[in-house]
Amino acid sequence: MENAKSTEVTLSDFIERLPKVELHLHIEGTLEPEMLIALAKRNGVEIPYRSIEAARNAYHFDDLKSFLNVYYLGASVLREDRDYHELTIAYLSRCKAERILHAEIFFDPQTHLANGVALEAVIGGIHAALLDAERDWGISSALILCFERDRDPATAVKLLERACALGNITGIGLDSAELDNPPGKFQTVFAAAKAMGLHRVAHAGEEGPPSYIWQALDMLQVERIDHGVRCLEDPSLVRRLIDDRIPLTVCPFSNIALKVFPQLSKHNLGELLAAGLLATINSDDPAYFGGYLSENMLHTFSNLNLPVRDALLLQRNAVEAAFCSDQRKQELLSALNEYNASHHVLL
Ligand code: ADE
Ligand code: ZN
Predict the structure, then answer these.
(1) What separation in Å is there between the alpha carbon of 176 and the centre of ligand 1?
(2) CA 285 / ligand 1 centre spacing (Å)
(3) CATH class in words for 19-346
(4) Atom number in ligand 1 closest to CA 178
């Protein structure tokens, strides 16, 4: 008992102060119940929760679709430039507290446009917060515009051009309800993004089959796969992901909350690493799934009995997978190496 306790404390401290990178984070998924209720009131938006507690109680899901209903409802309270700024600053202050030095942030503009919010307010609010965090806390970031795969792809290129004219879009992604919405539908906008010099990622193999990962690679030419945990069902796909060093942005708490795996001790992150895949660890929608990055790491490590050195491996993988400059990657690697040198006794 004494031993178990001291191991836990050591792992917790190690992870808490470890320099970290987060690559799979939906900014709308950081909307904590407190802010949800406050913004609904401030903006006069009707929501079906009377209290913070009632909102929190609604955060139980059967699958991805049932989560998305709650998530899009939550996003409907975001209306003004300052709402996006406050939401993003709140997440970045978590980054500061958890020593996340670089964050790549997804947003869902089609949802906000459908709610009658101007694209300028969405991008302006988020982007101003990213600049504030870089200036005040030295946190670097990238902004990734996600297309919702259960919406019509026909208007996607126009939206991308408008967003890029507003500035500072690093890449595009593909999210929302995966089943019956194969990546191939979005080939045109992904080709346009590539021609514009943008980075490209897609959610695939979260609930959907390995064939959706193949499509994301071959038809969308993505550089990273978000989730991708179902790749292990197809050995030739695993070979391809390893050979091309395609990173997977794995989100353990999300996979448990959405019942991709029945419990954390059954998650396949350890197998993904053992297979030699370039896996990273991320929080996805932390306000809805019960924890931010450090907690995802801590609980995943203790449930899977992963060695502490895998925490370093996951973070080195994340630096390799990040869409930042080579100079910034060197800084992030130096921070990791320095941390490792002062903790090597643990490894
Ligand atoms: N949007 C927000 N979180 C998501 C997830 N886990 N999968 C697909 N779309 C999402
Ligand atoms: Zn996601």
Answers:
(1) 5
(2) 8
(3) alpha beta
(4) 8
- 3-state DSSP of the chain: CHHHHHHHHHHHHHHHHCCEEEEEEEHHHHCCHHHHHHHHHHHCCCCCCCCHHHHHHCCCCCCHHHHHHHHHHHHCCCCCHHHHHHHHHHHHHHHHHHCEEEEEEEECHHHHHHCCCCHHHHHHHHHHHHHHHHHHHCCEEEEEEEEECCCCHHHHHHHHHHHHHHCCCCEEEEECCCCCCCHHHHHHHHHHHHHCCCEEEEEECCCCCHHHHHHHHHCCCCCEEEECHHHHHCHHHHHHHHHCCCEEEECHHHHHHCCCCCCHHHCCHHHHHHCCCEEEECCECHHHHCCCHHHHHHHHHHHHCCCCHHHHHHHHHHHHHCCCCHHHHHHHHHHHHHHHHHHHHHC
| Contact residues of ligand 1, CB 6 A cut-off | 26, 29, 64, 71, 175-176, 203, 206, 254, 284-285
206 classed as catalytic: yes
Residue spans per domain, the chain: 19-346
* Ligand closest to CA 64: 1
Ordered mean pLDDT values, 10 residues apiece, the chain (347 residues): 47 94 99 98 97 96 97 98 98 98 99 98 98 98 98 97 95 98 98 98 98 98 98 98 98 98 98 98 98 98 96 98 98 97 71
- The number of the ligand 1 atom at minimal distance from the alpha carbon of 148 is 9
Residue from 255, 284, 296 to probe ligand 1 pocket by mutation (most atoms less than 8 Å from CB): 284
In this prediction the pTM is 0.96
